[in-house]
Write a structure and sequence with these properties.
418 residues; alpha/beta; seven-stranded parallel beta sheet; six-stranded parallel beta sheet
């Protein structure tokens, strides 16, 4: 069967291992917003009801709920397998390790192909086990995960590399000096505003951002700092601000839903993560023409060009982050030029349309029982002159599996990487 537009609609089951407000959930939402309705019929399985599940329903997607613990429970496996059989699902697409484990088991029970997207900077043991034992396809979003998978012996024929992307038509350069964020916290129009955008949890390093703010504020006392996001470290961050007397210039904004408006009020975006893959927040900030100061983790060095679009610092080095913030704030013209380069890089290399086009093509081909030639080396390196990656390109030509059905590995076959 051809994977073209004349084929029946692909019946796709998305298994989502979490339902918070985070990068993975944003990825799923943007994918489902843009998958062609005439080619896909989508059902989503979530672990619980939340703002995320309601947002997906508003897209016209059927959302069902069942527990998805780290160790899959039999009742949820039976529920998902029944769903696959009764809805005649063509492909299971999983997000996060717990979803991958469930999807792998359900795929084996129902003879349905499974694709797992690994959203972190590395595969977990669970991802590797599910891939090896059930022959699932893997897709990674950053270069370190791709290389790690190959080193671990993942079958390269079942490994795909499609970086995240930002909507460069929604996230555009715009400068607002009297917006709601500044008015809310009484930030003067002429004061530089440095932003942290992300979940307030350990891996994102919000405490390092606040420590860096302490350092930068000594050199740039007129600067303000804002954390945009929510999470388990919200109380700890509030305590830190109070303990060190930062209340006049460090602010907790909580969750914000109009992110283009937030970015328009910022002058510089900082990422102090201890662990990252290809963070959407940084891509969106770059698309908005903002320079970046970030820790050198995961796929971030593929995004930020040190000295050209921002600065890179070793993870955990909050003194170094603070020094870079102060250095850039002292050079507004250089910051403006870095922001222009960041925008150009986002448009050229990290546009969402290309990510969606390649993902759509991969989903279609897997659903139709074809074995796609692996997508590799899509993300550019941070060096100048890297290959552009923003044109809409389909996956490479495919080869039909000899069975003519779903492309899966036989038990005991070699593993693959994404």
């Amino acid at each position: 069967m051809s994977a073209g537009c004349d084929s029946p609609r692909v019946k796709l089951l998305q298994i989502v291992g979490n339902a918070i407000v985070g990068g993975m959930e944003t990825y799923v939402q943007r994918l489902l917003e843009r998958l062609p309705r005439e080619r896909f019929e989508v059902t989503v399985l979530c672990p619980w009801e939340s703002r995320h599940s309601e947002t997906l329903r508003q897209l016209g997607v059927e959302v069902l709920v069942t527990p998805i613990p780290d160790e899959p429970c039999w009742s949820s496996i039976v529920f998902a397998a029944s769903l696959v059989r009764t809805r005649h699902i063509d492909l299971i697409h999983c997000h996060l390790t717990n979803a991958h484990l469930m999807g792998a088991l359900v795929g084996r029970l129902t003879d349905t192909p499974v694709l797992a997207t690994v959203h972190g900077r590395e595969l977990t043991i669970g991802d590797l086990e599910a891939h090896r034992l059930a022959g699932t396809q893997l897709c990674v979003v950053c270069r370190p995960a791709h290389l790690q998978a190959l080193v671990l012996g993942v079958d390269a024929e079942r490994l795909h590399f499609i970086p995240n992307g930002a909507d460069t038509e929604v996230f555009t350069p715009r400068r607002v000096r009297d917006g709601p964020l500044r008015r809310r916290f009484g930030i003067p129009e002429d004061a530089p505003l440095v932003g942290f955008v992300g979940r307030l949890s350990w891996e994102k390093g919000p405490e390092s951002f606040l420590r860096a703010a302490l350092v930068a504020h000594r050199a740039q006392p007129h600067a303000h700092f804002v954390l945009v996001g929510d999470g388990p470290m919200m109380g700890q961050c509030a305590h830190f601000i109070e303990q060190f007397g930062m209340g006049d210039y460090a602010h907790l904004a909580g969750l914000q839903h109009d992110m283009p408006a937030v970015f328009s009020e910022l002058d510089l975006v900082v990422s102090t993560s201890h662990s990252e893959a290809m963070p959407l927040a940084l891509m969106e900030a770059m698309a908005c023409g903002l320079p970046i100061v970030a820790t050198r983790v995961g796929g971030v060095p593929d995004m930020v060009q040190h000295g050209l679009t921002g600065a890179l610092v070793s993870p955990g080095d909050f003194d170094g982050v603070g020094a870079q913030i102060a250095k850039l704030l002292a050079q507004p013209e250089a910051m403006h030029l870095m922001g222009q380069r960041a925008r150009a890089r986002a448009v050229e290399h990290f546009c969402l349309s290309r990510t969606i086009a390649q993902t759509t093509d991969l989903l279609t081909r897997l659903a139709h029982g074809a074995t796609p030639t692996p997508l590799r080396a899509v993300a550019p390196s941070a060096r100048a002159g890297a290959t552009p990656a923003c044109a809409d390109e389909p996956a490479a030509p495919i080869q039909r599996s000899r069975r003519g059905g779903s492309a899966r590995a036989a038990p005991g076959s070699k593993p693959a990487a994404a």
